[in-house]
Amino acid sequence: MAVSIGTGAINSVISKLNDLLGDEVSSLVGTALLGKKVKLGIQYLRNELSTMKAVLLRLSDMEEHMDPQTREWRDRVRDMSFEIEDYIDRFVQRRRGHGGSQSRGVTASSARPNPVGIDGPREKIFGWLVEQDAKPNVVAIFGIGGSGKTTLALEVYNKIQEQFDCRAFVSVSRTPDIKRLLKHILFQVNEEEYLIIVDDIWSTSAWQHVKFALPIDNNKRSRIIATTRSKNVATSCCADIDGHMYEAKLLTVDDSRSLFFGRIFPSGECCPQELREVADEILKKCVGLPLAIISIGSLLASKSRTVKVWSKIRKSVSSAVEKDCPLDQMKRILLLSYLDLPHHLKACFLYLSVFPEGYYIDSRFLIWNWMAEGLIGGENREDMERLGESYLNELINRSMIQARKIGADGTRVKICGVHDIVLDFITSQAAEDKFVTVLIDGKYPSWKIRWLSLHLNSSEAADLPIKDASHLRSLNIFGPRGKQLPQNCEALRVLNIEGVVKSKNCHIEHIGSFYQLKYLRIIGYQITSPDTTITELPEQIGNLHHLDVLDLRGYRILKLPATIVQLKKLVCLFLDEIFTPLPDGIGNLQCLEELSGINLCNASVRSVEGLGELTKLRALKIKWILGFDRVLDEEDHMRVCASTLSKLVANSLHSLHFTGIKSSDFLNSWVFPSGSSPPPLRRLFLEGVGNFDFPAIPSQIRSLINLTRLSIRYVREMGEEGVNILGSLPMLLSLTILLLYTQRQSCVISSQGFQRLVKLNFHGETCLMFEPGAMPKLQRLKLVVFRWPEQYNPGLLHLSSLKHVSIWNWRRDRGVEDLMDEIRSVHPNHPILDRRV
Q1: At residue 139, what are phi and psi to the nearest 5 degrees?
Q2: Is the dihedral of CA 351, 353, 356, 360 positive or negative?
Q3: Does domain 118-247 have CATH number 3.40.50.300?
Q4: What would the DSSP string read from start to end of 447-511?
Q5: At a CB cut-off of 8 Å and minimum separation 6, what does 416 contact?
Q6: What is this structure's pTM?
Q7: 630: how many CB neighbours lie within 10 A of its CB?
Q8: Per-residue pLDDT tens over the stretch 200-250
Q9: C-alpha 29: how far from its chain's center?
Q10: Is it true that domain 343-427 has CATH number 1.10.10.10?
Q11: Distance between CA 795 and CA 770 in Å, rounded?
């Protein structure tokens, strides 16, 4: 079911009215006669709203031409729908007491567009950076927004990175969180020779903060690449450090055509001759801005390839006045792309305005937010998640948002983001539609706020009280400054907080009264003292009967309240994996699909057995860490745990992450017993702890034929048998093996096995030898070797699909340099090379 901002509100109300009609209405209102009258009134209201919904759907397709009176009517209908829903929720709460669509993956050209017109600038900047000055050097790239500054910086970074021991990337943004930014820099950059990109610097003061955090007086050959829109900032970057300034140029006509046609015809076919004239007219309006060309090209890629259709797009772009500056032209193109979106995608797109500039968005959490906000329709959660993924992929394929991290399968987007120019447009459009209100400077608008996002980088915004929270449906808080939550949030569906808390347990005191809450996420990234943390949940949290997602990672929840098992709709529970024991009665949470952050060692036998009753559980992340104050029969307790895990693995688990395994028998005999049918497990992460390591690759892993991702840490020996076990997994895409540094061995990887492997991370002294035809689809290889043997050549030239090679070698052995030179000069793919010491 398609959902827009307005129709989403009406859909929710109609659904709740239907629920009321399905209930015994008289039982809610008192008498049979009154119940009959109320029922007729509910039916009338439902029918009227259904008619209004049909009108709203028609209006959503003519938004650009909507007159002010119609727009005002639309806004009033939407607001009325929210008011009705709030009244229904309050009424039901008081009367009852407190007690599929197929997802299309992202296209390669959308996920990682091939840059054009970049070879010359890249080589010029590369030449500056490789100058043999034994002191830090900076290159400041400046130019208007959307001109490809960050793309150019990353291209240079990828070409030169292997020459530096330490590498980092930080984004500053317009309103930087200076403390977090400096902490990020200090964490990544040390006193060695370093290479760092400092992206999107908006002011000279921000640069001064960054500069003071960088070791620039160490007389070592470090390099800094800075990007900014301001020439003055670029000048400031080069004032105190030797360096060069480079102005990002707009694309030439030929490069513009190459980028434009490459986006529309990704398979390499030529543009039909009859479309070339109108294409050139469209490109003139893009004035050589890569972001504008990609946006309009993505729009045309979804249209019919006819002169009539392309001319209509050209006419729409040309409606901007000729004297518009390039950024105004860019905004006009973004508006055109936005208006072309289906109405259900418009709401999801505008919702991205809640995130701060430069924020890396977890795709799964974004989809869960869309679901909690009612922006995705569907009968069950699985169908809604698939539909949400298709929405995300469609926005990426249209180049409205960016894919920043792709899964090993090459299609699933794990992390996404928004270009700052696009974010400006989204924020402005969302405010115009009275959808999301973003508060940065502490000024509240005059209208009634239902979706609020606070970016608390200033004390002014942090100290401002939230006015009339009774209408709030969504509250997002980002930043290092804590804020006390209001108490009257009865309509709240989404609560997302990232940052420090104002005082101990302050964010959760009143959460038990937020009865409509579906999504609760409080993440701590800067816990400074025991007085600014969360250690417990209130007993009243059991009142949140609509809660789907509860995420409190980063906080030391010492014990969950007994009422947690009353959350019958809870689907995802994420906690700290060291401190939190499994609650008794966990088996009551029959909707639970993901559980992360549980220490089984602290759990009772009853709770561990209850874990095995969760028939819908798909993902489980657990640890076995024995505390000093915990005394138990460890062998018997592990047998109970193994029995539970065996049941889950056989029936429902798709992902298992287990740290602290103490016995190979735990896996081979207990969790993966021989003779059982192949389990549905797709992702497996195993890690030994303490004095335990795996003597060899566990043999029963061979039975996990559905595995796509496998990680095993602390294996004593791999050997030929281990290679055969791993190579026999037919679906494996990603493999990580960490060997203990024992006696050096050799392992030959032949052309047999590993037919689908795309990513390999291998840590250890064992020498891998790749024969011709080995791992035919491997694209990313990481080798971590303490000592690189003389004359050792692993045969990386035999890896025909290789795109990225990373070698970590602490001793700076000469053999690594020779191997890198060979790959650089001979390998036909010219993979990105990354050497670390």
Answers
A1: -120, 120
A2: positive
A3: yes
A4: SPPSEEEEE--SHHHHHSPPP-GGG-SEEEEESSS--PPPS--TT--EEEEES--SSTTGGGTTG
A5: 361, 363, 366, 392, 396, 401, 402, 403, 404
A6: 0.80
A7: 13
A8: 998 898 888 888 888 776 667 788 999 999 999 999 988 878 889 999 888
A9: 46
A10: yes
A11: 5
